Structures are given as structure tokens and as C-alpha cells.
Amino acid sequence: MSIRSGTHPYPPMLMQATEVQALLESVGAVRHGHFQLSSGLHSATYVQCALVLQFPRHAERLGAALAAALGDVDAEAVVSPALGGVILGHEVARALGCRALFVERDSTGAMALRRGFALRAGERVVVVEDVWTTGGSTRETMRVVEAAGARVVAAGALVDRGEGFAAELRRALPACALLELHIPSYRPDECPFCRAGRPIEKPGSRR
Q: What CATH class is the domain 17-195?
């Protein structure tokens, strides 16, 4: 897949996966313990991307790297699910030179475009998330985009937890994550940490 040149406000900056992992670990974004993920699954590892995205220089660099990795998708807008995808989506849009919008839950609990955000019919959209596990938030965001009449042309994430969602996406459209981590996760009734009586944290934005 080719990488655009000359059209980005910021030049494409590829990052190796090892660089991304080292950056996340340097700010304590890779946490260890017993966590309930936003998907409802349990895991001994939680990637708290907010801890790296709180630094504007890191957010800008990661957003530019993800834009470069996505290649020449000719995006007209980036749409992200709130809350975790908002900052990264904004920085990807900055690098691509397009709008940054986000979806959030309405009074019924469904994802929706609010705050006056709107998409044009046929508008080319990249969906950006911070972490892919089961892909629930990305799927919801894609449905909102398509319901508005726009077209999802690519999807990206900072971290793919290796649950198979990225492979599923790639069968339909260009999709990539800057870092793939194979982190086991468990249904609550199968979680070995629950069985051992370890206290659980619920750090996700849905909780």
C-alpha cells in the first residue's frame, strides 16, 4: 500500500512496533493486574492509551505514524468512538489533513453523531480507535458512519490485542494497528484470576 507524500500537513512518519511498545511502556500505559475490559472480557494486562496520549508530542507522533501506515486512503474525515479514540483520531485527521469527528452514546446507550456533527453522503471516512479487542466500538462507529450515508474506506488503531478483529476487518477494507500484542483475555466465568479471588479493576471508559 502506498504512502501519500506532499498532501499531509505533517510528513508521514513510520514507527516500528518495537518503538511503539517502548513508548507505551515508558509512560506506564501497559498495566498489569486483573482488569475488566470494555468488551466485558477479563485480562491480566490493560493498555491505557490515555497515559501516552496525554502528551501532545507523543499523540502527534503516533497519529502521524498511523496515518502513514494506513497509506493513500484519500480520507475526507476521521471518525472515532468516544472516549478512547478521540485524541488519536484527532491526530490522525491532522496528519491526513481532514476533519476529526467522534461518536458517543446517546440517552438510549447507542453510539450516535451528536454536537452538530454530520457526514455527507458518500464522504470517505477512516474509523480510528485506541485499542482493538473484540472490535465492538469500531463496529458501532462504522454502523453510524454508514447509516449517515458516508463510506468507511479504512480503519486503524494504536494497539491490536490479537483477538482476530483486525483480520476480520482486513477482509473488507484496509486496516492496521501500530502495535499487535497477543494478550490472553477470558470470559468472566473462565477467568483464572477471578477463581483465585484477585480484586478486579474496571478502567475502561464504559465503566
A: alpha beta
